[in-house]
Amino acid sequence: MTTKTAPQHGERSCYLRGCRRPECCTAHYRYMSRYRLDAARGNPRRVASAPATAHVRDLIAQGWSRSQIADVSGCTEGAIVRVARGVHPTIRADLSRRILAAQPTIRTVNERSSVAAIGTIRRVRALIAIGHPLIAVAEASGITKTALGHIVNHENDTLTARHARAVAATYRAWSIRPGVSARARMRAARLGWAPPAAWDDDAIDDPAATPDWTGSCGTDRGWWVHTLQKLPMCEPCRTAHEEWKAEHRGLPSGEFQAALMASRASASSRGADIATDARELMRLGCDYEQAAARLGVTRNHLQQELKRHPETAAAA
Fold first, then answer.
1. How far apart are CA 199 and CA 187, in angstroms?
2. Cα–Cα distance between 249 and 252 in angstroms, integer?
3. Phi, psi at 87, each rounded to 5°
């Protein structure tokens, strides 16, 4: 068994560990260039915490608990406590966005209340993407096919919390097993609908969230995974690959091709290796958190790779 306990060369995290190989330095310089460019464009990585603090305090005044706010915002309860107290004058921009986007969800409102439809739309589309036809999802959720069709086609911006909860329950039960409808899969592929493995369960209801098809979306490796696995190409990966080519365009032709093939090779089997090694670790008694730590990936990344690479041909 091969365990990966350190970042791969070509990643900024490898540079931060002290590696000074050219590809690691390039990853660091690219990150810092984007950091400075974001700051110059008025998109800093950290922003004033006052708006998020005011929003958290307003939600608490409405009866929300700190754990509910943390659940909806996709962060820890401790982070919400610190924001509510105004401990720091600035916070990460992404955390601020998630907190400001936190609104009553299917878990926190009355059944007849209206909630945003975006999470339900993503769940239904994801189930269709792995072969569950719309009519089957509708029957399992206790919703008519026509009504669910209106939802999945995004004809309405809201739906009742009761329907949202019903779809969420079906999604939890069915997202771990593929369906049998090739027609459903083809429809989802044609429309570019992301499967469950591309969605983080903590972010699927967040309007600002985007699917991570590869576990490396937004990087050149992600572009290669899209290409090799014939996944619909996402814009962050397309942009990252164009940036990679621009950075390496000055190399002699032979060196450029060698670097290109090295990038391709790094993406060809990493996901499958992570899934295989994780299953072996869990057979030896590790839980998800321990296996992820041993392999040098996040828990969510590990769960996505396990979904992308089923253990048996029958499961695939």
1. 19
2. 8
3. -65, -40
Chain centroid to CA 246: how far?
Answer: 27
Q: How many CA atoms lie within 13 A of 193 on its CB side?
A: 25
192's CB contacts (< 8 A; 6+ apart) are 232
Report all structural domains of the chain as residue ranges with CATH numbers, in order of start: 1-44 (no CATH), 46-101 (1.10.260), 114-198 (no CATH), 220-308 (no CATH)
Answer for the pair 182, 194: CB distance below 8 angstroms, yes or no.
no
61-78 burial: b if 16+ Cβ within 10 Å, else e = eeebebebbbbbbbbeee
Cβ 127 vs Cβ 148: under 8 Å: no
Task: Please compute Rg for the chain using Cα positions.
Answer: 21
Count of CB atoms situated within 10 Å of the CB of 46? 15
Which pLDDT tens digit goes with each residue over 196-255?
878 877 778 888 777 877 767 778 877 887 787 777 777 788 888 888 888 888 888 888
Q: What is the pLDDT of residue 3?
A: 45
Residues 6+ apart with CB under 8 A from 38: 44, 45
